[in-house]
Amino acid sequence: MDNETQVIILPEPRPGASRPESGIERLRLLGVLADAGVKVRHDSGGRLLVVDASDQAVKAAQESGPDFDSVPLDGELTQRVGDLNAQDALFLQALQLRLSPEYQRRKSEMTPGESPEEQLLRTAPCTPPEG
Q1: Strand bridging mode 48-53 / 39-43
Q2: Residue 49 and residue 91 in contact, taking contact as beta carbons nearer than 8 Å
Q3: CB count, 10 Å around CB of 4?
Q4: What is the 3-state secondary structure (H, E, C) of the chain?
Q5: Sequential pLDDT tens for the chain (131 residues)
Q6: What's the CA gap between 31 and 28, in Å, rounded?
Q7: In terms of C-beta density within 10 A (0-12 exposed, 13-18 middle, 19 or more buried), how is residue 8 classed?
Q8: What gap in Å lies between CA 55 and CA 72, rounded to an integer?
């Protein structure tokens, strides 16, 4: 089965859980995902991970114990994730922007090196100005 881009949604931390405890659970999940052959493409640092994985690999990781949900990247993320902290909410907004048809259209029309930022990189001096 081919790999597909999915979003892994980690559960909300248990009430009263300390940051080290929730961090250990998160690291354990990352290890289980790696062992199942799941490749993490983007990590919000919180509850959301964008991964490349087959459904089989995700199911194998879920059967190994960690609690998480997964949805296709183009799925209805906002309905599945529940409440998010500011960091994860911003990450989700960025994902939705990148998936938007307008963004995809503009991205496909871009020629490498034409953006104002890329032009500045090409013309900016390599040393800071004196003074």
Answers
A1: antiparallel
A2: no
A3: 15
A4: CCCEEEEEECCCCCCCCCHHHHHHHHHHHHHHHHHCCCEEEEECCCCEEEEEECHHHHHHHHHCCCCCEEEECCCCHHHHHCCCCHHHHHHHHHHHHHHCHHHHHHHHHCCCCCCHHHHHHHHCCCCCCCC
A5: 466 888 888 887 777 665 555 677 788 888 888 988 889 999 998 888 999 888 888 888 888 867 888 888 776 677 777 778 889 889 988 988 888 899 999 889 988 888 888 888 888 777 877 76
A6: 5
A7: buried
A8: 10
Question: Which residue carries 């309905």 as its tokens?
Answer: 79
Single-letter code of the amino acid located at 101: P
